[in-house]
């Protein structure tokens, strides 16, 4: 049976900080401390290094989904995240986007996430803590998941 894998967007697939460079200084000041509420910010983000190729590789080994939150106070976030998936993942992300503030309600074997909030700490399955000492980048994640350590 194929194992289920969830991959977070912000900070894992998507480089949130890449959007900051594209924002006007006045917007940065107005939304200081809550940049995820800037209308359209999610449409400005670039992929994390090696994220796209890694995600595609993972789809060949797992039943892979994108599991992300959408800021409640940002009405454009839902559509922007969907458009991002279509643009960068195409057919590999087709109908694979799940937006929730309660990630633990999704049942799976693995969750790649850079944070421990929004239900990650209660997820039943293994949390692969992206950008941690053990999993600092996509290469380390692929080595673990595809290279055999997780399949042993």
From TrEMBL:
What SUPFAM superfamilies would the database entry show? Answer: HAD-like
Q: Which GO terms describe its molecular function?
A: 5'-nucleotidase activity
GO BP annotations, alphabetical order: pyrimidine deoxyribonucleotide catabolic process
Specify the superkingdom: Bacteria
For this chain, the family text in UniProt reads:
Belongs to the 5'(3')-deoxyribonucleotidase family.
Name the UniProt record assigns to this protein: Uncharacterized protein
């Amino acid at each position: 049976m194929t194992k289920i894998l969830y991959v977070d967007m912000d900070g894992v697939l998507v480089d949130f900080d890449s959007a900051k460079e594209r924002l006007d200084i006045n917007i940065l000041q107005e939304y200081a401390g809550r940049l995820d509420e800037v209308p359209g910010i999610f449409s400005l983000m670039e992929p994390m290094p090696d994220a796209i190729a890694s995600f595609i590789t993972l789809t060949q080994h797992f039943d892979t989904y994108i599991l992300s939150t959408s800021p409640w106070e940002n009405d454009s976030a839902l559509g922007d995240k969907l458009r991002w998936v279509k643009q960068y993942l195409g057919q590999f992300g087709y109908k694979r986007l799940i937006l929730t503030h309660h990630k633990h309600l999704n049942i799976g074997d693995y969750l790649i996430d850079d944070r421990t909030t929004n239900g990650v700490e209660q997820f039943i399955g293994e949390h692969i803590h992206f950008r941690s000492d053990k999993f600092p980048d996509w290469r380390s994640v692929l080595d673990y998941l595809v290279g055999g350590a997780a399949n042993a």
